[in-house]
Amino acid sequence: MKSAPRVPVLKTYKQFIGGAFPRSESGRSFVLEDAKGRPIANVCQGSRKDFRDAAVKARAALEDWSARSGYNRAQILYRLAELVEGRSDQLVAELKQQGATAAAARTEVERTTDLLIYYAGWGDKYQQIFSTVNPVASPHFVFSVPEPAGVVALIAPDEGALLGLVAALCPIVVGGNAVIALASESKPLSSITFSEVCAAGDVPPGVINILTGFRKELLPHIAGHMDVNAVVYCGDDPSERKTVETEASRNVKRVIVTGAGGEDPYRIMETQEVKTTWHPVGF
Amino acid sequence: MSVVSVERKSAPEPAWTYAPAPESADPGIRKRYGLFVNGEFVAPADGKYRTIVNPANEQPLCKVAEGSAADVDRAVKAARQAYTRVWSKMPARERGKYVFRIARLLQERSREFAAAESKNGGKPIRESRDTDIPLAIAHFFYYAGWADKLDFAFPGMRAKPLGVCGQVIPWNFPLLMAAWKLAPALATGNTCVLKPAETTPVTALKLAEIIQMADLPPGVVNIVPGGRPTGQAVVEHPGVDKIAFTGSTAVGKWIMKALAGSSKRYTLELGGKAANIIFEDAAIDQAVEGIINAIFFNQGHVCCAGSRLLVQEGVAGSLIEKLQSRMNHLIVGDPLDKNTDVGAINSKEQLEKIDRYLVIGQEEGATMWQSECPLPQHGYYVRPTLFTNVSQSHRIAQEEIFGPVLAIQTFRTAEEAITKANNTPYGLSGGVWTDKGAKIFKVTRSLKAGVIWANTFNKFDPSSPFGGYKESGMGREGGWHGLAPYVRLERV
Fold this sequence. Notes:
The complex is a heterodimer of chains A (283) and B (492).
Chain A: E1 29-33, E2 39-44, H1 48-67, H2 70-86, H3 88-97, H4 102-122, H5 126-130, E3 132-133, E4 140-148, E5 151-155, H6 163-174, E6 178-182, H7 189-200, E7 208-211, H8 215-224, E8 230-234, H9 238-248, E9 254-258, H10 266-270, E10 272-280
Parallel strand pairs in A: 5-6, 5-8, 6-7, 8-9
Antiparallel strand pairs in A: 1-2, 3-4, 4-10
Chain B: E1 32-33, E2 35-37, E3 40-42, E4 49-54, E5 59-65, H1 69-87, H2 92-108, H3 110-121, H4 125-146, E6 157-161, E7 164-168, H5 174-187, E8 191-195, H6 202-213, E9 221-223, H7 228-236, E10 242-246, H8 249-259, E11 265-269, E12 275-278, H9 284-296, E13 308-312, H10 313-328, H11 348-363, E14 367-370, E15 385-388, H12 395-398, E16 405-411, H13 414-422, E17 429-433, H14 437-446, E18 451-454, E19 473-474, E20 487-491
Parallel strand pairs in B: 1-5, 7-8, 7-10, 8-9, 10-11, 12-13, 12-17, 13-16, 15-16, 17-18
Antiparallel strand pairs in B: 2-3, 4-5, 6-20, 11-19, 14-15
Helix pairs in contact in B: 1-7, 2-4, 3-4, 4-5, 9-10
């Protein structure tokens, strides 16, 4: 007797907030379609409240994450690379579903893995590259070190569904910040799968939060949030940029407008503050 | 609420009097200054001049051109031309030599500049002589040396200048702020349009004389004095590539909005409400001196002033008593007298603002105590003031007063001190006083502020970066970190 064909299990794509996978509190979702207009998945349409919830989780996670050693943060990023490698078939399949060719999808996943390893290695090195001991003219020992800016909002690039997000995320996270990322609007699936990688890895809950939804709707709320210290905007839309920069002025947020990320330690410094400490020298 | 009351205030101290010791150097202030554009002093387009007042006696000091949007435009064009034709093409070593010249020429005339600074801004001559002017000179000298070493500054990258920098500076450290802005910009190959504060343009215009004497190519530095509309014209001018601003957080936010959507870069050095934390195991007498320096230096017109004092409960009573005694010995008066500790408030407007906060503090329930010193009959002065019974929500504990007014709170544990210190939208500076090294590092790492002084306060050096977290601004000035805001990095 021939058995009935097995029905595949479809995946529910949810947001990643504080280490959990809730749907949008708003109950909204939108249908993601492939190039031929066939529905691929329902995706959460994240709300302003989802962002605020994520900001609370990120703030709560910040103290522990920023106090961890660079060595520890490096190992956690490295672990993410291991997990991405292990899930590469799934990630490739998803990229293809969202329109990439097989070869491009494979390359993107490989580059994502390599970039995670690249930034993992900076975890305990960028501090030395960007710190100074200052030769002041008075009898003081004075040094300046980078410290994480705090809670960082990331508007991920629309292109490069996986690599774009991870390339922008790595320099923020390795530097001890907590991040709330708004995934690519047109290709959000890989971001959600990446968040599963984060949950399976040792990233503490709240350090990486990933929302899906509509940029135009969420941008002003993200950039205007009073408990976010910096916003990294990956894009080149002049009106979006103006919105981000205008709203950011409310609490003097650092605004970083940037393109596709790559191997660049200076990107780490974009979401760092520099703290200078003075100590008298003498008895 | 602080449990400390000021009832235990010490008996009046014996009045110490000193014979006057006035600074004798001629400040060399002209009767009238034009704008400094393209290497020359020129008349403003609409012929308007502002009367500059000596805040120590309310007498007019000189007249200074009030730059209009047309004047700013002229200055930006001169700066652009100087950038493309001369400054960006000049070998870095030669560029550096010009900046060195400025430092050396200033050094030769430092006494004159100190007298002018005190006369225009009201700060004690001891401070302008020993702090403002020497630090300004040191800044030029420090950054001059960077000009031909930029290839070694950013590993893997080549540093390119940005172009024309618009720089808007405040009235509390007029020449020093001009130096903080101009020195790194020039050394990295940019040209500048500088707008001094409306009440304190004198030393910037005297610096223009130095720049002429140094024979800087015309247009490399342009100085356009004026009020807020002049600053606005600089910020909004489409020919400016980068804005550097030092001033209030409110104006900083306005600048961010004004620049939103443009490709101009900006750095902001804004307000502060620094906590100065005194632990029980601190050397209390030294700490008292540190508190005095933290809040009364430059009449408290200091963005990084230690305007909130957090004292551990066990020593609060005795420390406040010593502090009051010390405050009673502060000499408030003629800025040009070498005995003066606290000079004149910079302007009538600022005096009124401080006075408003004295009323607000009392209305909100805090207890005010002021030193008993005599004040001059004319001019703008405030007695050194402290408030006790201050709670975290009081406006005098939250808002920047920018005057000689100290808000005192107490704490029990280090954690409480850190929480209170960080409970502010600002994050410019902070202080910690303790004899225990490990505690210093724990606390300084926990404070969310850009500059932390341990067992000292209000120390500055050109080799040391300065700038804030949160609403105290972004970017750093000074040191290696201070180069970054003035360069574009390209991969080698």
